[in-house]
Amino acid sequence: MATSIQHPASVSSPRPQADRAADKPAPAREPLWREVLGECLRSLRRERGEKLSETAARAGVSPQYLSEMERGVKEPSSEMIAAVAGALEVTLVDLTLAVADRVRSAQAVEVRTAQVSAVRSGQVRAAQLRAAQLRAAQLRAVRAAKAGARYNAVCSAAYALAA
Q1: Does the N terminus or the C terminus of the chain have fewer Cβ atoms within 10 A?
Q2: Rounded Cα–Cα distance for residues 12 and 16 (Å)
């Protein structure tokens, strides 16, 4: 009686590590600076009720380039950002703060989503999470107070020089 021997190639083997990693959902991607900058520029332009070509003409850039900046396709130089900010009558500081606020809020949403998921899956108790959030809020308050003090000192010095 002939016995059938399986050839090693026909034996099923476990899936490679790379395939298993593909089953897991990819973590949310943090937005790029240029993408958030573009969103801010577009919202500022639209708030002013301007067409792309009008803002581009005042900034000294082509409408195509401004469109690419707004869509986050271009990595604009600081000179280009300053020109567009000037055309929109905002300072670089205000524009930078607006971009930073949007990035921070996007991160906060991502962190909150991860926290809720951890609590729901039982990995973390809600009380532990609240304590960690309180510590993080305290650290943010200290950092903000230090930054505010530095800002006030710079403004006071500038005011004294101007007087």
Answers
A1: N
A2: 12
- What pLDDT digit, counting tens, does each position of 36-64 carry? 999 999 999 999 999 999 999 999 999 99
Residues 6+ apart with CB under 8 A from 118: 124, 129
Amino acid identity, residue 12? S
CA angle 101/103/104 to nearest 5° reads 65
Distance of alpha carbon 27 from alpha carbon 110, whole angstroms: 9
- Taking the C-alpha atoms of residue 57 and residue 40, their distance in angstroms, rounded to an integer, is 19
Distance CA 113, CA 109 (A): 6
Predicted TM-score of the model (pTM): 0.53
Q: Residue 57 burial (CB < 10 Å; 0-12/13-18/19+)?
A: middle
